[in-house]
Design a protein that fits this description.
Elements (H helix, E strand, L loop, with lengths): L3 H25 L3 H51 L14 H23 L1 H11 L9 H10 L2 H10 L2 H9 L2 H23 L6 H20 L13 H11 L3 H12 L7 H18 L5 H15 L1
Helix pairs in contact: 2-3, 3-8, 4-6, 4-8, 6-9, 9-10, 10-11, 11-12, 12-13
Pfam families: COG4_C
Protein name: Conserved oligomeric Golgi complex subunit 4 C-terminal domain-containing protein
């Protein structure tokens, strides 16, 4: 017995040495490009695993947040119907449900923000900035008809972004409510990038019609993208709708100036204030102009009056 144990240890050591030398030889046989590909594949696999764990944590935190909210409502209803004369049952809990719900809310919101900011936002921002150079809104009728058939650069860009592998992976991995939260943030940033891009362009009447058509098309595309069904994105497209109103109610000579004025305001400003400033700008331009086409000026004033009311 004492002599067999050292032999087995030596055998195990020899086997390990053989395996180690085999691994070294096999890795030495690899070219630099093959080794680089292996390293990239390993890094991508690790990143996918990190994203998968993050998505699981986000979905779990959202479900817990929703469940705690339902418990809060159930306890409140039970208290009101059966124990109205007793002190609040919620105060008997060791930890307030509102604090617990807030903690879960912070977990899934911060997780969604981390996924979006790391994997989606930078490359989408870069692609929008590159695409702005191709946008044209001083168009002839022939160019308008051409874009009607072949599509515009802006719509083609958004369609390509909707095919992004990372975005579609998030749509598959997240639950419908959590992906909708992320998707609304994506659309808000998308509309902001479009707004900044169009403020750098000059417009004529045909170009204003082209932008209005593009915004309508994009709102439909983005509303259909979530897997759970159509999503109303009216709030996210409000700014672009206001820009279209500006372009639709001004002449081609002042359109670019009004759009630049609109781009200076942020979303946190009230819509009435925004409309009031634009009406003032248009009124000043009309006072400097001639008295031609009074019906068109009346229609402009009445349209903004209807918006303000």
């Amino acid at each position: 017995m004492p002599t067999t144990r050292p032999r087995s240890v030596r055998g195990i050591a020899c086997l390990r040495f053989i395996r180690l030398t085999h691994v070294v030889v096999s890795t030495d046989d690899l070219s630099f490009s093959d080794a680089l590909l292996q390293a990239v594949d390993a890094d991508l696999t690790h990143q996918l695993q990190v994203d998968a764990k993050m998505m699981m944590a986000v979905v779990s935190a959202y479900m817990s947040w929703d469940y705690v909210g339902k418990i809060h409502v159930r306890i409140t209803e039970t208290q009101a119907s059966h124990f109205a004369e007793l002190p609040s049952l919620l105060e008997c809990l060791p930890k307030p449900l509102s604090e617990l719900q807030l903690e879960f809310h912070q977990v899934f919101t911060s997780g969604l923000h981390a996924l979006y900011a790391r994997d989606l936002q930078p490359k989408m921002d870069m692609r929008f900035h590159q695409s702005v150079l191709q946008w044209q809104y001083e168009l002839s009728l022939q160019a308008y008809d051409y874009l009607e058939v072949h599509g515009s650069p802006l719509v083609a860009l958004v369609q390509s972004l909707l095919k992004d592998k990372t975005l579609r992976r998030f749509r598959r991995g997240l639950s419908p409510p959590t992906f909708e939260l992320m998707w609304r943030q994506v659309v808000r940033d998308m509309c902001d990038w479009i707004e900044r891009g169009v403020t750098q362009k000059t417009f004529n009447d045909v170009g204003a019609m082209q932008l209005e058509k593009e915004v309508r098309h994009l709102s439909v595309l983005c509303g259909h993208f979530p897997a759970a069904g159509d999503v109303s994105l009216r709030a996210e497209f409000t700014r672009l709708d206001q820009v279209n109103i500006c372009l639709g109610t001004t002449s081609s000579g002042v359109a670019a100036g009004v759009v630049a004025l609109a781009g200076g305001f942020r979303r946190d400003l009230a819509g009435a204030f925004f409309n009031g400033v634009v009406v003032s700008a248009i009124a000043g331009v009309e006072e400097e102009g001639t008295d031609e086409e009074p019906d068109a000026r009346d229609a402009t004033t009445s349209s903004f009056t209807a918006i303000d009311t």
